[in-house]
Amino acid sequence: MGDSVGLALLFPFLGFLFNALLSRAFPRGLSGIVASLAVGLSFVVALTTFLALSALPGSQQFHAVTLWTWLVAGDLNVRIGLLVDPLSSLMLLVVTGVGFLIHVYAIASMHGDPGERRFFAYLNLFVLAMLVLVLADNFVLLMAGWNGVGLSSYLLIAFWFERDEAARAGVKAFVVNAIGDVGLLLAAFLIFVSYRTLDYDQVFKAAGAGGAVLTAISLLLLLAAVAKSAQLPLYVWLPDAMAGPTPVSALIHAATMVTAGVYLIARTHPIYTQSPEALGIVATIGALTALFAATVGLVKPNIKRVLAYSTVSQLGYMFLGVGVGAFGAGLFHLTTHAFFKALLFLAAGGAIHALGGEEDMRKMGGLRARLPLVYWTFVVGALALAGFPLFSGFWSKDEIITATFAGPRANPTLGVVALVTALLTAFYIFRAVFLTFHGKPHHHLSLSEHFHAPGPVMTVPLVILAGFAVVAGYVQVLGGSFGHFLQPVFNRYGPHEVAVALNPGLLAASATLSVVGIVLAYVVYGGDQALARRLGYQFAWLHQLLLNDYYIEDLYRLVIVRPVLAVAGFVGETFDRVVVDGAVGGVVAMVRYSGAALTIVQTGNLRGYGLGILTGAVVILAYLSYLGGWGG
Questions:
Q1: Torsion of CA 431, 432, 435, 436, to 10 degrees
Q2: Has this prediction a pTM greater than 0.85?
Q3: The dihedral of CA 430, 436, 441, 447: what is its sign?
């Protein structure tokens, strides 16, 4: 089993090589098929690994396989090693499963795009990097996957690089994530200096002894997690990432890149459990981010941006879960979120595709009759996101809320924030439902022959994801099997209870808030929207505040971007031109003038050269005679 999991990496790697190097010799449509097949085969490997692991006793669910040794230098031993355990097998299953459906969807979504081959090469590379990240058994290989995901996301977000918006979004994502990369790199240095190893197993065993250094390591790892998972204050890259193609949005937001930060904290839990202060910061950041992004999502007009802020908010829930010590609850929500958020993005992509690329919900409306399958699958995803009773998000979100009130490190104040966020979540996602699919059509393609209804290649993944968005939550309900499966991971380096018993009172409160949010959304946006316009006028200041993200981006531009650009301008225009160019120019001028001076004696006249030689000889002889006479 440990050896075969390497095939999960091999298949997307081969898909990447084909699309990057060989695909131009074949019909363009083959690129998407090969890329999808590669990830599909990885999913088969992931599924067999998951099932085989589930059949083993807890103590036998850990398999480390070394593919080769990369570097040995003193105490530093860097291996290309893979770790197969319940946590990595779960992430492997989610990444390849959801990734496969997104790849299939992209075959139709990207059909006819001039860069189709390049797109699928990047997509396979992205999946490969994410699999390296979750399967690594040491921090060096983790960083390789971590940075590979960052590079791939830049390439995908800026895929339509000829558009200024996409180019800027790609650079923004790369720069903000680079801040987190520095945190991960410094954490690895500190780990090695402290423990003389970078292997997970040895580091986690040593971390059990405690020590003040663990808090510093935890905070550096948190910096990396906050950047990758788009938490406050480094969330700013994720909404702009919507400039990429819709399948990219689904892949980044659902099961891959943004969940890497949550995975990092869960994987390094032996370090975090020794630092309650760091865990408290994780929980606080998560709760504040969840509330912040939910409020901003209330007013955004672009459907993909609403879903983007929804992702930021739901990642905040996951941070809150792991921050209060309910690692299983956080990972459970990560899993269910992968299904319903991928569903929402792909269903939104179906509507956008039908309208020729229109993303503004104010220019949509009335799509329910024209796109019934897209509508109902979007509603299923919305119900799961809203935490509506019996849908997957209801069970996973409520387990996190329960943990904030009664978990290992309960914080009721943060629990209240989570409940308020649940109400806002239900409101903003059903605002999107009513604006996009209900009411009167506001788009010019409503009755046009150019209306592009999505075909089976796009709709079949929607149906499959909708099914999982409904039933995925019952994995936990039926005997707590999800937490039971992960328990060996969190007990390996010390006892830690993963499962959290759901509280009926909190379940009822959360369900009530979900229903209230949906009803309020219907009241405000379900009819002629006169109430929405009136509220917008009455609270124009609040609307502008939320529409501009509390002016956080303006603050960054004022405090960070402009000073950096000013310094760069000074260096480029003044220092570089005056000092650097001046020094180089001065040397050039000196050589030029010296050469010009020498041309005076380089006349080409042989008599002149002879006279010069004779004169020089006379001067030398006179000087030597003078020295001889003086010495005598």
A1: -160
A2: yes
A3: negative
